[in-house]
Amino acid sequence: MRHFWKRAAAVTGMTTAGQLVLVLVSPIIARLYGPAELGTYAVALALASICVAISTLRYSLAQSTARRDTAADGLFLVCIGMLILIAPLAAGVAVAASRISGAGGGALLEARLIGAVTAAYVFMGLVDVLSYRTIRQQNFRALSITKSAIPAAVALFQVLFGWARMGGYGLILANVVGNAIGSLILLPGALRGFRPVRRRRYYGPLLRRYRRFPLFSAPTALVDAAANQLTPVLLTTFFGGTAAGHFALVHRVLKQPTALLGLSLSHAFLAEAGTMEKGQQRDVSRFALTTLRRLALIACLLAVVGMAISPWVFVTVFGDQWAEAGRFARILVPIYLALFLYAPFHQILTIREQQHLQLGIEGSRLAAVVGILTAGAAAGLTVTSTLGLYAVGVTLAYFLGIALIIRVLRKGVHP
C-alpha cells in the first residue's frame, strides 16, 4: 500500500503533463480545423477504438494478473497475434466511418482514410498490449514516459498537419504517429525477459485457464468502448457532423484528461492489489473507500466551477464558432466528474473477479447513450435538449457503478 501513491504520482504526473499539452494546443486546433472536420475525426477514431477494445479478447489484461512469468509471456504472444488477425476488421470500420461521417468524397480520400484508421487501430492496440505487459513488470518509468509522449506527439502533429490543411485525415494520421512513438518507447522493456513456450499444446490450456477474460471482460470492454465511442457516431447520424465536432472538442478538453487520470490511478491500484496476499484485501478495501470519499469532495467543487464558467471559457479561448461547444460543456460536466470517481476503481471488479457486475454497469451506460440519443432525435428534440437528457442518464449509470463497487468493497468479496 505504501507504494501506491508513489506509483500513482509517477504515472499520473506524466499523464497530466501530456494531457496538459493536448489541452493547451486545443485553441490552435480549434482554429486550424472546423467543427465538421473534428466530427469526421471523432467518428473515425471512435469506430477504430471499438475494434481495439476486442482485439485481444482482453487477454492483454490477463498478463498483469498471471501467476507465473511463463503464462504472462504466452499471453503476450497470443495478444500480438490476435491484434494482427483482427486488423482487416479495422479496415471495414474505416469504410463505415467515411460513409457515416460524410468524409468519403472520393475514392482517393476513402482509401487514405482506410489506411490511416487501420494504422491507428494497430498502434493503439499495440500500446494497450504493451502497457499491461509493462504494468506486470512494474516498469512505471516507461509507462509514465509513454503516457506523456503519446498525447504530446498527437498534439504536435495535429498542429503540423492542420497547417498543411490535411483536414480530418491529418487528425487521424497524427494519432497514428503518436501511438507509434508510444509503442517504440514500451517495446524494448516489454521484450526484456520474454521467453515464450514454443510448444503449441501449451496455449490451449493457457487460454482456457484465463477464459473468464474473453467470456466476461471482453464483452464488458466492447460494451464500454461502444458506450464511450458511439456518441459522436450517433450525433453525426441524427444531428450532423458539426454537432459531433462540438462534442469532440468538449471531449478533448474535459473527458480525455479526466479519463486518463483515472486510468493512471487504476493502473497503480491494479499493480498494488495484485502483489498483495488474500489476507490484505480488507486493507485494500478500506484504502479504496477512503480515497473515493476524498475524490468525491474534489468532484463536487469542480462541478460547481465547471458548470458556471464553461460557456464563457469556450467562446473566449476557442472562438465564436465554438460557442455551441461551451453550451455542451456546461451540460456534460456532471458526466466527466462521475467518470473521475468511477475510473480509478472500476478495476476492483476485475481484481475480485466480479466481471459480470462490470458488464451490467457498462450495459446500462450503453443503453443510456443509444436509447436517449435515439429517442431524442425521434422525438424531434434539439441537440441541446437531447444532450441534457443524455447527461442525466449517463451520470446515473456511473453512479450505479460506484454504488456496486462500494458494495463489493464493503463485503470484501473474493472467491
What does this structure look like?
- The chain is mainly α and 415 residues long.
- It has one domain.
- Helix content is 85%, strand content 0%.
- The chain has 16 helices and no strands.
- The radius of gyration is 21 Å and the shape is globular.
Précis, in short:
The protein has helices at residues 4-32, 35-54, 59-65, 69-85, 87-101, 107-136, 140-163, 167-191, 203-209, 212-239, 241-274, 281-318, 323-342, 348-351, 355-378, 383-411. The protein is mostly helical and 415 residues long.
Largest sheet: none
Q: Number of helical runs?
A: 16
How confident is the prediction overall: mean pLDDT?
81
Number of strands: 0
Number of domains: 1
Helix/strand/pairing category: mainly alpha
Low-confidence stretches: 103-109
Q: Secondary-structure element sequence?
A: HHHHHHHHHHHHHHHH
Please indicate the percent range of residues in DSSP E strands (runs of 2 or more): under 5%
Share of helical residues = over 70%
Question: Which word captures the global form?
Answer: globular
Please give the alpha-carbon distance between the first and last residues.
22 Å
Q: Give me the Rg, rounded.
A: 21 Å
